[in-house]
Amino acid sequence: MNKVFRGTVAALLAVASVAFVAGCAKKGAGNAASARKGATIAVFVPGVVSGSPVYEMLVAGTQKAVAEFPSAKVQVIEAGTNQAEWGDKLVSLVADGSYDLVITSNPAMPEIIAPVAERFPAVRFIAFDAWYQGNPRITTFRYNQREQAYVSGFMAALVASGTMEHSLGTKKIGLIAGQEYPAMNDIILPGFLEGARAVDAGFEADFRVVGNWYDATKGAELAKSMHAAGASVIMPIAGGANQGVIAAAKDELFYVAWFDDNGYAKAPGLVISSSVMAQERLAYEKTKAWLDGSLAQGVPSTVGIADGYVDFVANDPLWVEAVPEPLRVRMLDLLGRLKSGDLKLPVE
Ligand code: RBF
Questions:
Q1: Which atom of ligand 1 lies nearest, measured to the CA of 260?
Q2: pTM listed for this prediction
């Protein structure tokens, strides 16, 4: 570290700690609601918001919560697609003490947050779609993505092996990921296949990787090649690249299993499932809880189908129109068993 930079960091740290001490004095130890008056929140988006359901829901939920606290402020910062820069960008964001809370989302973030939280102890962190234990200033929430992927694989297999117009009748379904990561390789892909094999044990998954979360052209190319290789249902989990998969489905007429939010309207008749996480609601509730002082901080939680944070959108007329009744009946039966606890699919 050069001298000038070291000086700047020291000055920044001094300012940050003065601000923190002043903040504590101003805010007092009294009632929790007033303790968060005037709070400033940063939504740190590891990527770009547009085209990524998880981030669109994150931003919508936090903004909705902050709007209920007139003195609180929120700013959305897109860290961009170069993941090597995220750590430095997070440090720059919190270094001047401008933010009391940083809210973010994705399973890679806790590892990036942990050293930053050590250096800047005045800042609190909430990460959704993530899991971390051991720092009282880092609070994480993850979704049961075994359930989320299982219901998606089940529906995909019913359609792929069935007699719908564009079904190829093969025991093959496709998954296109933006990149490989533990939650994808160890939970989502196996859960997708597990759900398909509950329909027919002979199902295989064709798994391909875009290599980033934005290349729609590559997404379309992969989807077309998977369709040519016998997959008539493809699940894209690739951020902005999902758009390419939708375009390819419309060109070539195959089916899409949508993930994270309701995607039926993206290609009516071709999108045969929407397996969702209630990230907007969770971000809203937890941001609000932090602002009113009621959030239990420092503990990780897992939410899923039983508590309503993972679901399959079955009440959309576009689903009813797209999927024939016998298949819908089987899907609703599966959902009933998951909701009642008859069928349990824990993440660990
Ligand atoms: N999902 C997106 O939709 N857009 C993204 O830009 C994105 N970036 C990610 C970056 C990393 C390092 C990791 C581990 C995951 C990313 N995800 C992204 C996937 C996301 O966290 C989640 O697993 C999927 O949306 C499925 O719920």
A1: 27
A2: 0.91
Pocket residue to mutate for ligand 1, from 55, 57, 213, most atoms within 8 A of Cβ? 213
Q: State the pLDDT at residue 144.
A: 98
Whether residues 210 and 229 fall in one domain: yes
Q: What residues flank ligand 1, with Cβ below 6 Å?
A: 46-47, 52, 54, 83, 106-108, 129, 178, 181, 183, 213, 237, 239, 259-260
What is the three-class DSSP state of 235? strand
What is the CATH classification number for the domain harbouring 90?
A: 3.40.50.2300
Q: What is the pLDDT of residue 37?
A: 82
Q: Which domain holds residue 34?
A: 3-143+279-303
Give the model's pLDDT for residue 25: 36
Burial-class residue 297 by CB neighbours within 10 Å (0-12, 13-18, 19+).
Answer: middle
| Residue 34: predicted pLDDT | 53
